[in-house]
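Let us practice reading a record.
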Amino acid sequence: MFGYINAIVLLNRPLGEIDRRYLVFSDRLGKISLISKRGSLHYNSNSGILNALNLVKILISREGYSKSYYIQDAELFSGYPNIKSEPKKFAAAYYFLYILDKVFQEQNPNVKVFSLIRDYFQVLEKEKDIDYFLFKDMFLWHVSMGLGFMPELKVCSNCSKDLSEKNRFFSIQTGGLICKNCTSLEINYKKISPGSVNFIKEILKSKLSKILSLRYTSLARRELDVLSERYLSYHSEKNLVLFRNFLSGYEIKE
């Protein structure tokens, strides 16, 4: 017997002809696959509880030397009805689940990221006026930080020299800001304003409640467009779908 875990259900799929496989992101085990046996007493009664996007408490077990975890019981904490009933909220939430599935290896616990996704879903469930591109950027920078890919924003990420306020450039390859001299090294970079740098700093250091009061300037939106996605994609070594393309798959306009 292993015990209880709290988890967000990422997806569920048939396993063979009679069983089901659930992929969840949990507090104690990180991303993990769970098996529900059709012959078990809970199989039918818990099928709705374990729908994707649900926050649940699950009793799991592992027998002997088996590497597989089996579901013994499950309790629903939240089904996030508002998220599921509004197309933009639904698309944003599924994008977040997609990111968790893509960038995390199985059984690599990360309590901070579990708390993060739970907090973001609470905001999606309750808030009515959300800038979804800002919200996406916030989430992806936080995931990057949770994975240990903290961008260097104080000194040049290539040579460690102090940075000029006027000439700042961001390099995904080196993991942060670079000085003007290092731009001659053919590093892939883009110019970035002090305001946009401060915007990223606020996301990384502030609580979610404070960040929600932030608003993009038109300059920051142009400079930071898809930067959070490309930064996480590069450093996690995963080919991620851009958020705007994800929205178009749900036929949602920006």
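A brief commentary: The two ends are 47 Å apart (CA to CA).
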